[in-house]
Design brief:
Blueprint lengths: L2 H13 L1 H5 L7 H30 L8 H32 L5 H24 L5 H22 L5 H6 L4 H12 L3 H20 L9 H12 L14 H28 L1
Length: about 270
């Protein structure tokens, strides 16, 4: 799974955050732990990769160019931060509404670690800008677009104070929330659908076809999906990436059931 697909899932979560925050079902704590485990594994891979890239730049070799691999990793760090911030805001709003701390602790840990990885990536990019201006400009455009879109969708989180906490530009979130308040329910729905389509189209343009950690991205998506009650998926519009996760989860559940039945048959 590519980071751009994670971002699409993040945009869906932002729009449907009230289902998580105010819904009757209780998210599973173990699911939140799964998100932490897979996110921490991905963060560790990022840090290891960035250290290798830094070593490559410190001891340059004409036969090896670290930029192609580094582009893929840093792009994933930048783009996937959209989901990290959206999810952190949604679960903090959830815990605040329920006067609990069941979800935010692990989400906050991932958020802080993601910022550290992003800062490390930015330091390398700025230091090596002169060695590949084209790649630097592409990644910088992705960073700027991701930041702006993050603030657009954070404005969908019901609690403005919490949304501003996770914004790149808190004033921008407030401006977007003010715009949303001028739309009646039907108008807001149409506005959200337009934003989803525009975000999906714009996000795909500058992104590479490669993912640095497709396996962990998929596991992160699955863990977040499981935080929403199953009935939330019956009539809501889902991004293609989310649909694939649901399909894969269904297939995995079927395989697990078949395996269990075979084991029981052998025992009997």
């Amino acid at each position: 799974m590519h980071a751009s697909q994670l971002a699409q899932i993040g945009s869906w979560i932002a729009i449907h955050a009230p289902n998580l925050i105010f819904g009757g079902g209780e998210p599973q704590e173990l699911v939140a732990v799964d998100y932490w485990v897979h996110s921490k594994a991905r963060l560790q891979r990022w840090v290891t990769s960035l250290k290798m890239f830094q070593a490559d730049f410190d001891s340059p070799s004409g036969a090896h160019d670290p930029w192609p691999a580094m582009e893929v990793v840093i792009e994933e760090i930048f783009v996937s931060e959209f989901l990290t911030r959206i999810w952190s805001a949604a679960v903090l709003a959830h815990d605040s509404y329920r006067e609990s701390d069941e979800l935010f602790g692990v989400a906050h840990s991932v958020h802080i670690s993601h910022i550290e990885a992003r800062n490390r990536a930015m330091r390398i990019l700025l230091a090596q800008q002169g060695t590949n201006e084209v790649a630097f400009e592409r990644l910088n455009r992705i960073r700027q677009k991701t930041e702006r879109w993050t603030d657009v969708f954070l404005a969908m989180v019901p609690d403005e104070k919490i949304a501003r906490t996770f914004a790149f530009d808190a004033n921008r979130v407030s401006d977007f929330q003010e715009e949303n308040q001028f739309h009646p329910n039907d108008g807001l729905f149409r506005r959200q659908q337009i934003l989803l389509a525009s975000f999906s189209a714009e996000l795909r343009k500058p992104c590479s076809r490669w993912a640095a950690n497709p396996d962990l991205n998929r596991q992160i998506a699955s863990s977040l999906m499981n935080c929403f009650p199953a009935d939330r998926f019956d009539s809501l519009g889902l991004p293609k990436a989310f649909g694939m996760v649901l399909l894969e989860k269904s297939h995995d559940d079927t395989q697990a059931l078949v395996s269990t039945l075979l084991e029981l048959d052998q025992i009997s």
